Amino acid sequence: MASSLVLRKSPEFKMDAYNAQTGHYETVSSEDYTGKWSVVCFYPADFTFVCPTEIAAMNAKYDEFKEMGVEILAVSTDTKFSHKRFVETEPLLKGLKLTIGADPTGTVSRAFGVMIEEEGVALRGRFLINPEGTVVAQEVQAPSVGRNVHEFLRQVKAWQHAEKTGEVCPAGWTPGGKTLPVNTDVEQMTGRVGDYITVEEIMS
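and the corresponding structure tokens:
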């Protein structure tokens, strides 16, 4: 498996997909996301147990992501036909709006460094890509535990704020919270972060 993709250009890709919102098959590629914030979210397989809970959670926040200009692409090593049947039969996926990429050869999963070769499925890998095509955050974990969409949404908001303002966001930052203005006060702040923010503010 590859090392971290953070601060590297996102791998290029092209694959079949099932668009749950339209109910049709289509082709998706990395070019579709040029100039946009996007997330490529790998999961192990259709018709499993944790996976539909993650997909449903991302879908529950779909409109909020869209309002922020973020495109979402889910991906597994299943075929587009499997994706269609999965969406049609799994109760948690009723009303799904996401597009699910089909990577049966594992080519895209390998490019992102999440392929489990001996099993033929992907790890739970989530990659946030900025409009310049650079991966700014990634989360990769083993299949048994699902990811937290609330925390991911918080991270996206923080990244968008940081890139827009040049400020940096402390641990746990949420919109309206205190940032660290290193873009204007870097010398004064060095070694004195505690003069700008308290532990209580960080943990609130």
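(Above: one complete record from the training split.) The longest helix spans residues 149-165.
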